[in-house]
Amino acid sequence: NYVLGKKDFIKIITALAAVVEEKRDYLSDLDSPIGDGDHGFNLSIGFREVMKNLSLWEQESLAIIWEKIGMAILGKVGGSAGPLYGSFFLKFGEVAQGKEIITFNDFYAMFSAGIAAIEMRGKAVVGEKTMVDALRPGIDAFADAMEKQIEPLSAFSAFVEAADRGAKATIPIIAKKGRAMRLGERAIGHIDPGAVSATLFLQTIYKILLE
Ligand code: ADP
Ligand code: MG
Ligand code: MG
């Protein structure tokens, strides 16, 4: 009976914005050899827009808050990751519609729907060197843990661990989606920046859950 309320979600989005600032240059540097070097900057533009408006949105319902976050990221961030993360947050909030108390099952369902939205929008599958390589095995491990009724924090930890392994598995492969695709074999040896940012987001949320 682990539950989350609006305060927890405000904490989460604030922590995500902070980690984006902290890792902005690092994420852009990861994007340099196999992309155009802007991944961290793109995320920073989006999350700065969110933080600029968050206090205005705080009175709204959880679903509306996440919708506004998704729309801000979709609207402000160019490139691939902006629309993908934007769609994630839109769907993430949709699952919370009509609820202000989020059970851990709801929380799982929010991630599951959000990740499905990323897959739908980007049409990537595992093994194509994208953020899906972190998120899909992550959410599958989360689903498995929920099914086995493993306690919430361990279930989320399984999510994060599987995502981290998935992100690392992007290193030795070529890309079949995104900018890195054009590099062919030259993409080998570089981790996918979107898989890294996705894993960082999950690690950050896990830390909040542990508080
Ligand atoms: P851009 O490539 O347009 O400059 P970013 O640098 O912000 O955008 O984001 C790049 C990341 O987006 C990649 O590292 C990859 O994880 C992700 N990405 C690109 N295309 C797709 C896709 N079709 N599906 C899922 N993720 C994708
Ligand atoms: Mg880029
Ligand atoms: Mg770009």
Automatic annotation (TrEMBL):
Looking at its record, which EC class is this enzyme?
transferase
Q: In which pathway does it act?
A: Polyol metabolism; glycerol degradation
Domain DhaL, first and last residues per copy? 7-207
Family matches, as PROSITE patterns: DHAL (PS51480)
One example GO MF annotation: phosphoenolpyruvate-glycerone phosphotransferase activity
Biological process (GO), any one: glycerol catabolic process
Q: Which domain of life is it from?
A: Bacteria
Keyword line: Glycerol metabolism, Kinase, Transferase
Provide the Gene Ontology terms for cellular component: cytosol
Which Pfam families does this chain map to? Answer: Dak2
Query: Does the keyword field hold Acetylation?
Result: no
Query: Could you give the subunit structure recorded for this chain?
Result: Homodimer. The dihydroxyacetone kinase complex is composed of a homodimer of DhaM, a homodimer of DhaK and the subunit DhaL.
UniProt name for this protein: phosphoenolpyruvate--glycerone phosphotransferase
